[in-house]
Amino acid sequence: MAGTKHRLDESDKMEITSPSSPFMPMFESFRQELDNHHDTRERIIKASRDITALSKKIARHLHSPLPPSITKEIEPRHFAIKDLFTSISPDLHGPNAWRYQRQTSPACQEYLEALSFQHYLETQSLISHKEAQDHLKILLTIEDYVLGLFDLTGELMRFAITNMATSGALPRSGDTGDGRDILVDMRELRMCFESLDIPSAGGEGLLLKRNVEKKMEVMRQSVEKVENAAYGLIIRGRERPKGWMPDLSEKLEATEDY
Hints:
Elements: H1 10-17, H2 24-61, H3 68-88, H4 96-99, H5 101-123, H6 129-135, H7 142-167, H8 182-194, H9 202-234, H10 249-255
Helix pairs in contact: 2-3, 2-5, 5-7, 7-8, 7-9, 7-10, 8-9
């Protein structure tokens, strides 16, 4: 049976299109809030990516001792990173610090890796959470601090392998007089990391546990690479003539994968 068509007159059209519903202003405010949220999120993601890229450049240029030319080159990058953190700081006040924590986390970890590496080369010590927080203009969570230190072991491994290949010795602390070398510090870091008790309750806890497990494996491989290189340098080196240097070319190529 065919339905009867109803022709809309002007009064019907006005009734349909008119925002007379009391819910319309509420949904308009929701739309505005979502638009602001997405704009803020994209702004934070862009700044996070820029911070990550600059942090990688800082880590690549670090050496010990830091020559004036290197220090002069990385200093503007530190300032640029601080400006980027400052630019997104107003978007991360109060609850927003946690709301956008996943967007800022990669940048915080990457910058902490570069910052802690430079701190280690200058002081032969580990940067504290408070010292690291003073360099950032936004919240640095304990989780990001620990995950960033995991990445530090990769930089220490590259530095140790390169130093052994060029000088034939493990890098040692300069003025402490305790004869401590970089391998001792890396082993101590490994012991501390392996003693961590990471709760896995809830979504965030499970995600943190997975990240720690991945970084734990890479950290162990980094320490083992330095151990194997040191064994070849010390034990096998005694059987070689004076001035012999181990062939670490394969190890140097492998460091590029981390």
